[in-house]
User: Fold this.
Amino acid sequence: MLDAEHTRHEDLRTGKGPWRPALQRPTGGVLEADIRCDVAIVGGGITGALVAEHLTAMGRDVVLIDREREGFGSTAASTAMLQWEIDLKLSELAALYGFAAAAEVYRLSFQAVEGLRRLVGDLTLTCGFSPRQTVYFAAGESGPRELLAEAGLRERAGLPGSFVEHAALLEAFGFDRAAAIVSPGSAEADPLSLCHGLLGVSAQRGARLLRDEAVGFDGAGRSAAVTLASGHVVEAGSVVLATGYAMPDIVSDDLHRVASSWAIATVPQAPQALWSGPALVWEAAEDYCYCRTTADGRIVFGGEDEDFDDPDRREALGPEKTKALQARLHALIPQARLALDHAWSGAFGQTEDGLPLIGRVPGHPRLLAAYGYGGNGITFSFMASRLIGLLVEGREKRWFRHFAIDRPRPG
Assistant:
């Protein structure tokens, strides 16, 4: 998207999800002269929106830059399962970095979902935000024995949740799986409405939204600058790069890669076809599927990930992936209607260790960045907004090192 990158919204996702913004979103203006601000944010998706809201709440003068409609890139492709559990099991993360560090990361993620819940409530945002349990199934090489051990590690880390055997799982949720870990503390939301609501709050506090393309950066001097395609320059004390899965070359990292995922949304289901909770559901497998419900009774089901980011190839695989997701949905919930109202796909950034890349860009101390969220997009976006807010204030915390862009590769 930036520097030599030219990824457009249509390259980040294909098709349309079920999300329709319920709030009037602010629209970006056009610069007629160079300007200055405290912080310039590049990217108007959910990460940029959360950072803008937090920094304006801190009293900072914020300019947010996006070349297209805010929130209609990768954010519109999100399934918005706001989980604190991350892609790598606690046991796997502990094997990489030690139990203490892994447990701290998990607790930080748990606190992020709770922080997001409080923020949505304080701002009274209309975005379908609802607290949810998660049901984490035994699958693949992670059978009941492995899940029981994982549940024990979580308890040791001070995290909530219970190991549930087959009979109790079937009775409570109707899922015919060998075992699961059932945990409170997660949530779901409408990502577009959340994004637009946060942008609206930021604009009311004085944030300036610009419709332009960032084509260059300077973050090594006493101030930072963003050069726009229009030829104008936004000078700032700090620049935040929140461009979703289109990582600019200046932030290249060996840990990061972009992959593709597919999702479907069914027609509204009869209440008896849905599971209790309604909980967020996902599998303890490397190639896992996941599902949630919507306020109008649809089932959103996703997965079938592939390790490539070619938009043409992703679009070509759409019909095949849609059928595969329908088959997996039927295997999990045989009583569900498989008729679809929506099918879509998108790019997503992930890292080798399952942790995001958040912090200062190496060699450019006034450039801050947030990338590589994996399956924890909005959860890690909230965490990024708080970490970046502290960095803008000149404050460093010991836990920042877990997410540093230049952290060593595991192993």
Summary: Residues 9-78+192-254+354-403 form a domain with the FAD/NAD(P)-binding domain fold (CATH 3.50.50.60). Residues 99-123 form the longest helix (25 residues). The first strand starts at residue 13 and ends at 15.
